[in-house]
Amino acid sequence: MNEPVIGVVCTSRAGHDKGRAFVIIGVCDDNHVLLCDGETRKLERPKKKKLMHLHIEPQTADEIAKRVAEGATLLDADVRKALNRLGYNVDSDK
């Protein structure tokens, strides 16, 4: 499995959010990461999920990774826009 890195896009393989795209915004330990999609999982309450329940995608939201690393203000809209730009339309689940 690929190494989890902040800013990497992943899709859920298990749970009620199966098939949904997220951006990794934090790494808890070797087995868990914090996920956000800016819509159902906002930055205030990121989803803690096991790596074994995720599929790491080859795309990276570079602007999200850069802002998290700098400690700059990040908005849920920024995460949604980044996912849409990469072809993951999270708004289609409504």
Can you give a write-up of this model?
- With 94 residues, the chain is an alpha+beta fold.
- It contains two helices and five strands.
- The chain has helices at residues 62-70, 76-85; strands at 8-12, 21-27, 32-36, 47-50, 54-60.
- A five-stranded antiparallel β-sheet has the order 4-3-2-1-5.
- Strand 1 (8-12) and strand 2 form a beta hairpin.
- The chain starts with 7 loop residues before the first strand and ends in a 9-residue tail after the last helix.
- The model has no long low-confidence stretch (mean pLDDT 89).
Topology (SSEs and partners):
Elements: E1 8-12, E2 21-27, E3 32-36, E4 47-50, E5 54-60, H1 62-70, H2 76-85
Antiparallel strand pairs: 1-2, 1-5, 2-3, 3-4
List keywords for this structure.
single chain, 94 residues, alpha+beta, five-stranded antiparallel beta sheet, 2 helices
- Provide the spatial order of strands within the biggest beta sheet: 4-3-2-1-5
| Integer average pLDDT | 89
Cα-based radius of gyration, to the nearest Å: 12 Å
Structural class: alpha+beta
Helix and strand pattern: EEEEEHH
Counting DSSP H or I runs of 4 or more residues, the number of helices is 2
Strand runs, count: 5
Helical amount: 10-25%
Largest sheet: 5 strands, antiparallel
Low-confidence stretches: none
